[in-house]
């Protein structure tokens, strides 16, 4: 009896047929794709970007293309040249300008973090080697603030930007 009453109450309160509920407060397909990208789930990120192409073509179309290119490159991280690493990091910035994706961390560590740590240790004795390492980092990540600051510190009076 209680079940019948509950069901009748639900049916009475249901919206009329053909009326779509208003869009919920959930994230858009574009935002969902970016969240999955940041988490490192490229398959889900691409799926959400593809789903969103009909509703959000201006944002999801380019994002889908970027994710496909990123996914292809991500399968070859261990074989990257410095040029490929630079392109990979730039693609990561296009997809997510403020937060680096989880998968990008591996390339960033190999081409930026480790050489910078080595440059810091070399700066105390072998300044030319430290500058060489810094230039390698700046080739891959031209706007890296830490590398630019260390280069300026090691080359006083010279333009540290290039």
Largest sheet: none
Helical content stands at 55-70%
What's the number of helices?
A: 8
Calculate the terminal CA-CA distance, rounded to whole Å: 80 Å
Shape estimate = elongated
Instruction: Output the helix-strand order.
Output: HHHHHHHH
Number of strands: 0
Low-confidence stretches: 5-15
Radius of gyration, in Å, reads 24 Å
Query: What is the arithmetic mean of pLDDT?
Result: 86
Overall structural class, as computed from helix and strand content, comes to mainly alpha
Strand proportion, as a percent range, falls in: under 5%
How would you describe this protein?
It is built from 8 helices and no strands. It is elongated. Helix 2 runs antiparallel to helix 3, helix 4 runs antiparallel to helix 5 and helix 7 runs antiparallel to helix 8. The termini are far apart. By secondary structure, the chain is mainly alpha-helical. Among the domains are: 48 residues, no CATH class; 49 residues. It is 67% helix and 0% strand.
Descriptive terms for the model:
162 residues, mainly alpha, 8 helices, 67% helix, elongated
List the helices and strands and how they pair.
Elements: H1 2-13, H2 29-39, H3 42-52, H4 57-74, H5 82-95, H6 104-122, H7 127-140, H8 145-154
Short summary of the structure?
The chain is mainly alpha-helical. It contains eight helices and no strands.
């Amino acid at each position: 009896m209680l079940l019948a009453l509950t069901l009748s109450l639900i049916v009475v309160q249901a919206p009329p047929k053909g009326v779509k509920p208003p869009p919920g407060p959930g994230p858009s397909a574009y935002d969902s794709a970016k969240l999955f990208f940041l988490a490192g789930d490229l398959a889900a990120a691409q799926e959400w970007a593809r789903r969103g192409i009909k509703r959000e073509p201006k944002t999801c179309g380019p994002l889908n293309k970027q994710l496909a290119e990123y996914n292809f490159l991500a399968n070859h991280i261990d074989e990257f040249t410095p040029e490929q690493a630079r392109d990979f990091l730039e693609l990561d910035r296009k997809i997510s300008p403020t937060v680096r994706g989880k998968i990008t961390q591996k390339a960033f560590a190999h081409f930026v973090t480790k050489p910078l740590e080595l440059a810091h240790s070399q700066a105390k004795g072998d300044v030319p080697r430290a500058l060489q390492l810094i230039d390698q980092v700046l080739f891959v990540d031209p706007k890296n603030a830490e590398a630019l600051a260390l280069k300026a510190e090691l080359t006083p009076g010279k333009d540290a930007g290039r």
